[in-house]
Amino acid sequence: xxxxxxxxxxxxxxxxxxxxxxxxxxxxxxxxxxxxxxxxxxxxxxxxxxxxxxxxxxxxxxxxxxxxxxxxxxxxxxxxxxxxxxxxxxxxxxxxxxxxxxxxxxxxxxxxxxxxxxxxxxxxxxxxxxxxxxxxxxxxxxxxxxxxxxxxxxxxxxxxxxxxxxxxxxxxxxxxxxxxxxxxxxxxxxxxxxxxxxxxxxxxxxxxxxxxxxxxxxxxxxxxxxxxxxxxxxxxxxxxxxxxxxxxxxxxxxx
Length: 255
Hints:
Elements: H1 2-22, H2 26-29, H3 36-43, E1 64-74, E2 80-92, E3 97-110, H4 112-121, E4 127-149, E5 153-173, E6 179-195, E7 200-214, E8 218-220, E9 224-225, E10 228-229, E11 233-235, E12 239-254
Antiparallel strand pairs: 1-2, 1-12, 2-3, 3-4, 4-5, 5-6, 6-7, 7-12, 8-11, 9-10
């Protein structure tokens, strides 16, 4: 009898609790759905609107030295053709910023247009020939990415900008003998490198340089015009700003 009374008490208590719960409004009982707006208001402050893209880097540049050996061609020289060989040594403070020192040496010769001009007129066109240069540059790398190759492998590459200043050596070509000179020069380059291991990468550079170079002296003949002797000798033709563009491909070792 006691067990029966106790069972009846439990059933009546459970029923009363269920009725009490059902009588509450839906807002008080809560909902199974997650209220995103309340979470945003509580945990997402206005200062959190500014965020960065986060990605893992398999091959890092920060606090590493590198050495590059490269070769290339002049891109816009109207008088000369040949090859350029160079070397670069640099260091990255972090993934974005670095410094670089580089030296380039050229092996140039007259192109077909100059040779034809000499054969036809027996004279050398007024032009300078690029010989070598060295620069100290600052480097900024704003782009880093991964790319799938035929869904079989992933390559890692970055693209950056280099701005620097240095010295450019050139040769003034003239019939009386070539003259070697040098001038202050500055450069702006765009480069891209593709990493294929922790220590090696392929690098391509498109380099623009500007320098103010002396022009070839003009040796005028001794002539008589209207009874006046004009005199002969050298005539200074002044100087001009020369833009040299080159495309370089090289192999980089990262230490």
